[in-house]
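# step 3/5: fold
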Amino acid sequence: MNYLWAFLVGGGICVIGQLLIDLTAMTPARILTSYVVAGVVLSALGLYEPLADFAGAGATVPLLGFGHNLAQGVVTAVQQRGLLGALTGGFTSAAGGIAASLCFGLLMALLAKSRDQA
């Protein structure tokens, strides 16, 4: 049942993003940025944690989950280090995911044959 809920919640998040692309004049970059900010805001309001507990990877993998991860990192760092943690907490909490995406992106760039788009 966990897989079904993860699929439905994650798919719903993706459907909302696709509808925003198709029905509004928003660019994909603005939608992606809005998703990260929405994750931070929902996390600050205490609404994202129950969704993440319910849907698992369906809620933590999309960009809303990245915003939630940043917000939780800031909260934890502020509790541990004080106000300085507000500047460093987001970076430390998301460092593993960002490093992995950069490494895999570099690996794919080296393995794949890129060419100009016609």
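# step 4/5: annotate
The mean pLDDT is 90.
# step 5/5: archive (pending)
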